[in-house]
Every structure is written in C-alpha cells, then in structure tokens.
TrEMBL record:
GO terms for biological process: regulation of ubiquinone biosynthetic process; ubiquinone biosynthetic process. The chain crosses the membrane at residues 500-516, 522-538. It is a multi-pass membrane protein. It holds the Pfam family ABC1. Keywords: ATP-binding, Cell inner membrane, Cell membrane, Kinase, Membrane, Nucleotide-binding, Transferase, Transmembrane, Transmembrane helix, Ubiquinone, Ubiquinone biosynthesis. Its EC number is 2.7.-.-. It comes from Motilimonas pumila. It is found in: Cell membrane. Its main location: membrane. The lineage of its organism: Bacteria, Pseudomonadati, Pseudomonadota, Gammaproteobacteria, Alteromonadales. HAMAP family: UbiB. This is Probable protein kinase UbiB. The active site is at D287 (proton acceptor). GO terms for molecular function: ATP binding; protein kinase activity.
Length: 548
C-alpha cells in the first residue's frame, strides 16, 4: 500500500470512528489486532451519538466525498445488501458539496481550453451556479455569438482521491470475496469494478459530452425529453460547455402546480421516456436524480422533461433487453411461472433451481402489488422482498443491471412525487408489448429485411461473379477430393501389403525356431525367408504415395 493510500485509509477509518460506525461490527467478532488498534492508533470517540446508526452511516459517506457518496447512492438501490433503514437513508444522499474557488475554476478552464476566459466568454460568473462532488458549473456567454452557456469544470485533484479510494475498495472487496460465505452470489469485486468504470467515466467530460450528444439525437424532435446542446468546439477532458437551459426542478412540486403543469401526463412521460431509453435505444441516462431533471417552462399543459449531466449512462445487450422485457411482461400478466423459467434460462439462478418453488415464492411477493396506484406501492419494499427471495434461491448479482435498478428507483420516486395515482404497470405495459412485437412478430421480420436491404442491394451486382467463383471452387474441391480418395486407396493397399508380409515373416521365423534342433539347414532357410518378408513389409510401410 502506497503512502497516499495509507494516509487516505487512516482518514477513512478516522471518519468511520468519528461517526461511531465501529458499532456495525460486534465486539466479539473483532480480531485481537483490530481491538488493540482501536484503543491505540484509532482511539477517536463517537462524535454523533445522538443520531441513529443508519443516519451516521449516510453522514460518514457524505464526509468522505464523491466515491463514497456515489457508492452510497448505488447501494441504496441494492436492497439485497442492506437492511431497509440503511437503504432509505442512503437514498437521501445528494452529492452537493462546498464549491471550490472561482479563480481556481477559471485557471482550470484556461488550462484545458488553452486561452484566457476573456478571449472565449463574456460575463463569466466566478460564483458557481451549482457544485457537485466531481465538478462544478459556471455561467457565461459565448464571445463569438453571445449565446448563453454553462461551463462544467472538473474539481482539481479529484482524480487522485477517486483512484486511491477505488483501490482500497478493491482490496476490501477481495477480502469479502475471500471470507464471506455469500460472496459467490453477491460478487463484490465485480460490483466494485463496475462501479469503478462508472465513476472513472465521469472524470472524462468528453465522454459525458458524447453521451449527451447521443441522448439528444435519440430524442430529437421528441415531446417527452430535451437534452441541452453540447458546444463541442469548447469541450475537453476537463471542461464541458453546453447551452444553458431554464426549467423548474422536478422536485419543486409547488412551482410545477403553480404554472398549471399537467402532472399526470408529466409522470406518464417520465415512465415512457425511461422504457424508451432502455428498450428502444439501449442507451439510458442512469443518474436521473431530482438534481439532474427539470421541466420546461413552456407549454405546461404539454410538459417537456429536460435531462442534464449525462456522465453516467447504461447500456444493455440484446439478450438482457429481451429477458428484461419478457420478465416485465410476465410480471404484468402475472405469469410467475414464466418469470421463474426466464431466470433459470438466463443463468441468473442456478440451473438446478426448482422452477415450481421459485414461481411460488415470486407469486407471494408480487401478487399483492397489482391493481393499485403508485401511491400504495413501494417499489423499494417490493425489490427488498424480491432480493430476499433471490437470496434463498442463490440468485447471482448481475452487475450490468445495477444502473438499471438505480434508474428505475429514481423514476419511481419522481413519479410518486408528481402524480401519486399513476399506475406504473398500465403506463409501461403497452410500450413493452409494442417493443416485443417489433422484436419477435411479423413486423420484426419486415424490419430486419428493411435494415438489410441496403446491404443486399449493394451485393446484388456481385452475384454472377460470386456464383461463378462458387462453382469454380466446387469443381476444384471435387478434384481435390478425388485425388485424396486415390491417395487413400493406394496408401491402404500399401498398408495391407505391409501387414501381410509382416505376418508372413513372423510365421517363417516362428517355424524356423521350432525346426532348429531337428533340421538346422531348413531352419536357416525359413529364418532367412522371414527376415526377407519383414524387409518387404518395412518397404511397403515406408512407400510414399504421390498426390497427382
């Protein structure tokens, strides 16, 4: 462990002890070395004894900075790993932190863009518009055209802190994977590696810009979601410039209601947007917490979502998309047998799982939630029960679905705030049914033909030449097969002759040995004949067959 990592490790332990998180481990389970260290090196007392342990856990993560804040946000969606009171506290985590100096931000912008701020922007505001754990945002106008923009700049030195923290997490995950009995199912190292990829990607604002451009293209002209335009000429790995948007934070229910927003339609569009990103595009915004979602001031009767901060996006392969869609539809249709079978077929549960028992367990969890408005359904509670059920059946954690689970819970929370009577199932089911029809129905065949039509149109002029080459190749292959067959026949004849002379020679030598005491001259003659026969056998076995 390097010195910087050791120093960071001490700070982490000190923070945990400051919040009394050593209570999470029973004292009788602590090794002697850890107890001695607690009383000597780590002697810090709990400074927040008046708060409940789950709240202290959240505050400790908040103190430790971006890596632990975002880890807490991710864990809040993993109800299989934490008790409900901890998961609910972690769901409150928002990565709002103290801003860093505006002058330092200006220096960072000038360093990355290679020019003075005054040369590129007018009205640069040194006081940040918003500040998060990894970056902060300043407002300005483009000098070239006067357009209002926001400038996002990475917090200085944050990459070193993140890399050191992730290395420590990997070390801890390796120990958990080695010593925890359930590690094979929970796959902690894979979860940390997936998390590392996510947070390291956030450090590259060029990647965020590319994500935003792709998401904007996917919803171009849409009435459901608007993504601000990225000003690509002013973007680097450490600075991102985009158009400034004006909207009402989705969490400001009073302001939305005051302008007469159609809350039902807004909530429905949120659900539809989520499913469109996941199933239509296989490219979804995976950080849709209230701080990253706004509602346009324009036409409140036909509300438009605005999504920002595309640093974290998720993708699913075709197989996961298909299994998820079929699982959702099976849930909507209450076909729990199919849900259980799909889990087995996808490899999410072991192949020896008894489908009937798994079906019954899923039914017991999910049946009570149907035909109820969203206000009466706690998705977190349902997920907790499902994860507990999955634990009983040794369901393995699917790291590629962690972001999807997190996003789904964000969508549920937003929907609950906007329109508690929203029927999530009724809103999502038609979309999924239509998507499945496009994947497996007659329409899917037509679409596949349409997609491949340009390729085949390009290849049709080559068909005569391809047919001629194919026939020529077939003729050559026939000739080669004939030669190989002739070679094999000749080789087989030689081998047969070799075996014949070998057996004959052996018979003659055996006869010579038997007659040696009675008639020596005959024995010598037979023995000589036997050796000559062996020589012929050897000659035939070594004979090469030419392939003409």
């Amino acid at each position: 462990m390097k010195f910087n990592e050791l120093r960071r490790f001490y700070f982490i332990v000190k923070t945990f002890l400051n919040y009394g998180l050593d209570e999470l481990i029973p004292k009788d389970r602590l090794p002697l070395l850890a107890r001695l260290g607690r009383k000597s090196i780590f002697w810090i007392d709990n400074q927040h004894a008046d708060k409940a342990l789950p709240e202290r856990f959240r505050l400790a993560l908040q103190t430790l900075g971006p890596v632990y804040i975002k880890l807490g946000q991710m864990l809040s969606t993993r109800r299989d790993l934490l008790p409900p009171e901890y998961a609910e506290q972690l769901a409150l985590l928002q990565d709002q932190v103290e801003p860093f100096c505006g002058e330092l931000a200006q220096q960072q912008i000038e360093h990355h863009l290679g020019a003075k701020v005054e040369q590129l922007f007018d009205n640069f505001e040194a006081t940040p518009l918003a500040s998060a754990s990894i970056a902060q945002v300043h407002t300005a106008n483009l000098k070239s055209c006067g357009r209002e923009v926001v400038i996002k700049v990475i917090r200085p030195g944050i990459d070193k802190v993140i890399k050191a923290d992730v290395q420590l997490m990997k070390l801890l995950a390796s120990l958990v994977q080695k010593y925890l009995p359930e590690a094979d199912r929970l796959r902690p190292l894979e979860v940390v590696q997936e998390y590392e990829k996510t947070i390291v990607d956030e450090l590259d604002l060029m990647r965020e810009g590319a994500n935003a451009i792709q998401l904007r293209r996917n919803f171009e002209g849409s009435k459901e979601l608007y993504v601000p335009e990225i000003i690509s000429d002013y973007c680097t790995h450490g600075v991102l410039v985009m158009e400034r948007i004006y909207g009402i934070p989705v969490s400001d229910i009073a302001a939305l209601e005051a302008q007469g927003t159609n809350m039902k339609l807004l909530a429905e569009r949120g659900v539809e947007t989520f499913f469109a990103q996941v199933f239509r595009d296989s490219f979804f915004h995976a950080d849709m917490h209230p701080g990253n979602v706004f509602v346009s001031y324009e036409h409140p009767e036909d509300p438009l979502w605005i999504g920002i901060d595309c640093g974290i996006v998720g993708t699913l392969n075709k197989e996961d998309q298909r299994y998820l869609a079929e699982n959702f539809l099976a849930f909507f249709n209450r076909d729990y047998r199919k849900v259980a079978q799909l889990h087995v077929d996808s490899g999410w549960v072991p192949p020896e799982t008894k489908v009937e028992e798994f079906e019954f367990a899923i039914r017991a969890v999910c049946e009570p939630i149907f035909e109820k408005p969203l206000a009466e359904i706690s998705f977190g509670h349902v997920l907790l029960n499902l994860f507990n059920t999955a634990r009983r059946f040794n369901m393995k954690v699917q790291p590629q679905l962690v972001l999807l689970q997190k996003t789904l819970l964000y969508i549920e929370g937003l929907g609950r705030q906007l329109y508690p009577q929203l029927d999530l199932w009724k809103t999502a089911k038609p979309f999924l049914e239509n998507w499945m029809m496009q994947q497996v129905g007659p329409k899917a065949v037509v679409n596949a033909i349409k997609d491949k039509a340009p390729y085949w149109a390009e290849k049709i002029p080559e068909f005569p030449e391809l047919i001629y080459d194919g026939l020529k190749q077939f003729k050559n292959q026939q000739h080669q097969m004939y030669k190989m067959q002739s070679w094999y026949q000749e080789h087989s004849r030689n081998m047969a002759k070799s075996r014949f002379w070998a057996l004959a020679g052996t018979g003659l030598v055996v006869a010579a040995a038997a007659l040696y005491d009675q008639q020596a001259w005959l024995a010598y003659a037979l023995g000589g004949g036997g050796f000559f026969a062996w020589l012929l056998a050897y000659q035939h076995s070594c004979k090469k067959v030419a392939v003409e």
